[in-house]
Every structure is written in structure tokens, then in C-alpha cells.
Amino acid sequence: MDNRGFQQGSFSSFQSSSSDEDLMDIPETAMDFSMRDDVPPLDREIEGEKSYNGGGIASSNRIMDFLEEPIPGVGTYDDFNTIDWVREKSRDRDRHREITNKSKESTWALIHSVSDAFSGWLLMLLIGLLSGSLAGLIDISAHWMTDLKEGICTEGFWFNHEHCCWNSQQVTFEDRDKCPEWNSWSQLIISMDEGAFAYIVNYFMYVLWALLFAFLAVSLVKVFAPYACGSGIPEIKTILSGFIIRGYLGKWTLVIKTITLVLAVSSGLSLGKEGPLVHVACCCGNILCHCFNKYRKNEAKRREVLSAAAAAGVSVAFGAPIGGVLFSLEEVSYYFPLKTLWRSFFAALVAAFTLRSINPFGNSRLVLFYVEFHTPWHLFELVPFILLGIFGGLWGALFIRTNIAWCRKRKTTQLGKYPVIEVLIVTAITAILAFPNEYTRMSTSELISELFNDCGLLDSSKLCDYENRFNTSKGGDLPDRPAGAGVYSAMWQLALALILKIVITIFTFGMKIPSGLFIPSMAVGAIAGRLLGVGMEQLAYYHHDWAIFNSWCSQGADCITPGLYAMVGAAACLAKEEFAHKTLAMDVMKPRRNDPLLTVLTQDSMTVEDVETIISETTYSGFPVVVSRESQRLVGFVLRRDLIISIVPPYTPPTLKLRNILDLSPFTVTDLTPMEIVVDIFRKLGLRQCLVTHNGRLLGIITKKDVLKHIAQMANQDPDSILFN
């Protein structure tokens, strides 16, 4: 974000004022970024000259050096600014060196040194415990509130449908989801469970509860924590790249996101809770960082903790500690030292076992989708797997383009001003269309579990309603067999569910409620995979003598596993697009041909008045420093905020020595560097800008916005259509 204002007089006025117009008029003061000796020659003393020496007015012509006398505020960060990684790591090394040296002086200092080293592991333990506990609370609450839309348990209203019927003595195996202790709303209101009127009552209550949950979710987000909406993963990646977003990981965001995530999932909208769980875990990590000075006062160290917290979030979302570490390492983190790898794994393990001890799924397992496939896939099945991959790519392209278009419409029209109404409309449409279809009425996680399931003798699902289902000669494994009426009915319902999921997810993602995209995307792919899997299974059964089947699929054999196709389809809908770049850095940098020259500061030939003019006429977040305008030899880069703070002390000397706020090693690329490398550098290093040089001469600058516009152009999109909040 561009820093659009600076102030005058003192640092306190810098914090409270926002005017650019009332700067101190000190045109005789020169700016000096050079590395020359700070001590002026003795024969250059000028009697009677007054200058500020850190303690008041003095008679010596001493050059002010902020390396020795830092101004309060230099080195801190405003909201929507990027941290200085080199500065933060240097601070941590100095702190660690000081603690190590003091540890040799006394026993207490040694104890302090040991506790400082152990504090990181203690913090990981606390993050794992808190993340696992909150994830268990969210899972249990969401399951109960989802079932609340259909009925209530008379033995205890806090039991969900499954738990209510566990201890019932009047349940048969075929109807194990029906028990007298669980009453639908039609039974409670009109004492009827069947018939058209009972169906209408249950329909009405389902829609009513969905609207209530959605209204509470969007209202709480809008009033108390606007940052609690969405998935949170893109913003977490931005923060881990070094960007500052105050309040995004605060306590109010944690509380509201935890509550509204339960409400949003329970409303039946096409969204998931797995992505937002990463945000919840990172909120836990950020809040707990304030208990340890080492992490509270250092932004780079705090991001090491957030990387571990992200791993813990994925661990509790999917019950996969190793997967969480890999996700943090490969997808969200920019700085990931070896010690963070082990601490992330420790935090993910603690979080996973905490969740397991709570046992929200009731099966004593960690994983969200537990499946067992007994039949290996065959080489020929790569063909339908490729088809699923193509479907996943088409779905991804369709979703990205249509969702971006819808988000742009939301932002540029009156629709964006009424988020509550938008959420209620989408929820009403979703609930009305979802209730008649049992596969859209159930929660998305339950739907995916059923689609992944490999049919066995004990399954009563319509997806397993095959003819001759109990006629098996292979023990517990069932051979391929003709589909029954239940399977055909399920295929039609799943086809309709696929259309609804594809369409409604486009309009759901991006609303002002917590929403994840993992589960809806997996559901779309799993439905498509199961449909294709059943089709292949029936094709192999009725045409086992075809050349493509007769070599490996004999009649009565267990050849095709439809659940495996559902899993492949779910994975296919989670791919990332890669871009191939053929341009060079000189094609993207600014200034371009016929553009105004790049705004720069010179090393030692500018006055404070010159700098004030540049700051007041521009909104850039920083400026390159060159030796002179003629040579354009690059010296370094100075941040706008540090520059503003440094030129407003109440007593300004004739020469301001500002070498300590100058970054002497800004990231640079040559003008012939391929943009593919530049984009990779921005992604992995979390840069906000990099300078373009040719033989040491400054040519231009590439910012993060320039990179995003370039990516949009490579995707055949309008570069000016990119939305920057």
C-alpha cells in the first residue's frame, strides 16, 4: 500500500497528524546518504553555528548520524507495509548474542538463556493445544447445528443425530439413522412424520434455520470483525511474505471467526471449514506470540511461528500432520529455516493428537476422510483418470473466471454495499434447491465421505444398492455387479447435485462470511469421479469381453472401484495453474518509453526542501538512492516512512546523516532477467519491489502490482482489471 501522508514537528505529531502541507521549512539543511567519515575536519569548525547533538543546542557543527542516535519510530512498520527481513534478522542476532554473552556472568542469566532457547518449543506446544481444541469445538458444534436444521434429540438437545441414536435400543441395522429419540420438526410441531404437510414443515424449518445461521454469521462479521470473512489463506500467505495487516490475526478476529465458521458451515452453504481453520490456527499463534518477548518484538521471528501455526491448522483440518508441514513449507511460507520445520511438525502433531483426544468424528481416527480400497487400479484406467484431470482443469478455469467476474460486479455495483442481503439471498436459493436432494441436503464433508466409500456388505447407501449384493465368493470384497434401482436413482441425484455445486459455489465464495474452497472443490470433483466410476464399473460388467477389459477383468471379478474415481476427481479439482513467461524485466519495469523519469534521491546533493517536495508530490512507499542524476549509479533504497520520520526532528542540523535508514543491498535484477525468474523471486522472497539495473546503473523498478498485472496479461486478461483493495 502506498503511504499517502507525512507530518511535521515531532514524532508525536507524526503519529497523530495526517497533513502533508505543514512541513518544517528548513531549506538550508542538506541530506547525506554517503558512507564518508562522520567526523568533520577540525579546520572546518565554524564558531557560532548551532546544531542539534542529541541533547539540545550546541556550538559544534556536528553532523547528525541516526546510526548513533536513532529517532523513535525508525524501523517500525505502518499498517499495509512490508517488513525489513535483513533488519529483523540482524536484531534477533544481536539479541541472541547479548543473551549468550550475559549467560556467562551469572546463574540467573544462564537460566534466562536456557528459557529463551526453550520458549520456541513451549510456544509450539501451546499453539498445538489451542488449535486442536478449537478445531474439535468447531467440528462438534457444526455437526450438531447441521443436524438441528432437520430435527432435535428429545433425550438431550445437545446430541446430534448420530449420537442421539447410538444408545437407542429400538434401531435396526437397515434403518440405523432412525430412532424414536430423534424427532424431525414435523413430529414436534404437527406430530406427523410422513405425508405432504410433514414434508412442507420440514422443508420450511430447514430453510428457516439456514437463513438464521447465515444472518448471524454475516452480521457478526460485519459488526465485530470484518477480517473474519473468507478463507484467510491468501492473506496468511501475504503476511508470511512480510506484509503487515494489523488486526487480521487479532483476538477479535479469532473469536468471531470461530463462531461464524460454525454458523456458516451449518447454514448449508457451499463452503468448507478447512481453509478457515488455517486462519484460526494462525490467530492462535499470533496471540500467543505476545506472551514471549522474543516473538512479540520481532516480526521475522513471529512469521516463523505463523508458519508452524499454518501447519497446525492443516493438521487439524485434515488430520494430516505431515501434510500440514508440507503445506506450510511449499505453499504459504517464504522463510522456512530448518528449526521451523521441526517446530512445525511438533505443533502439527500436538494439534492432531489434541483433536484425536476430543474425537469429534466419533471414530477415533485423525483423518477427515478415511477410506480403504482393496483392489488395485489397472493401467487402462489411466484414460478415465486423464478425463477427470481434464474435467478438473475445466472446472478450475470456469470457477476462476466466473468468480472473478462476480467479485468484480460485487465490488463495482450496489451489490457490494449490502453484504447481509447478498448472503441471505444466496443462502435461501441454496437451501431451497438443496433440501429435495439428499446429496445436497447433507453436509459437504459427509457427501465426500460417502462418495469415497468402497461399497461393502454392510453398506445401506443408495450408492451401494446393487443387484445380488449378498452373492459374493470373495469374502468381504464384492465383485462387479449390475446396478440396482437405488444406484440409478443416486446417479440422477448426483448429476443434479453436481450442477448445483458448480453454480452455487461461484456465487458463494467471496461473500462476507468465513468460507473455504477446499471442500466445495473436492465435492465437485468427487461427484464427477463417482459418476464416471459407476459408469466404468457397469461398462466393464456388461462388456467384459471387450478388448480393453478381457485381459484383466473377467466376469464376476472386482475390477473397478468407483470410490477411487471419486478420490481422483477430488484431487483433480485442486490443481494450480503455472504461467510460462517469455518477457524480460525491461518489458515490465517502470518507467516505460515516453513515461516520466523514475523519481530518485541523490546521495549527497539534495536539501530537505527537495525531499519534502518529492514526498508531497508522490505516493510511493520508497525511493531509490543514486550517486547523481547524471550517473544513475545505484546506492540503495530508502523507505518513505523512515525518511519522513528522520527529517522532522525539532532541531535540524545543517547536514542530516541518514545512512542507517538506507538499505544498501536492495534486491536488484538486470534488465535482461526473464520475467519467469522475477515472478518466482517475488513469490518466494515476498518482495514488494525490486530495482532493475544495467551494469550498476538504475534503469527502473518492478513492484508487486506490476507483477500481478503481468500475470493477468499472460492469462489473456485485462491488466487494468486487477482489483487492489
TrEMBL record:
InterPro entries on file: CBS_dom, CBS_dom_sf, Cl-channel_core, ClC
Recorded topology in the membrane: Multi-pass membrane protein
Keywords assigned by UniProt, alphabetized: CBS domain, Chloride, Endosome, Ion transport, Membrane, Transmembrane, Transmembrane helix, Transport
A GO term for molecular function: voltage-gated chloride channel activity
Region: Disordered, residue numbers: 1-21
Subcellular location: Endosome membrane; Membrane
Designated name of the protein: Chloride channel protein
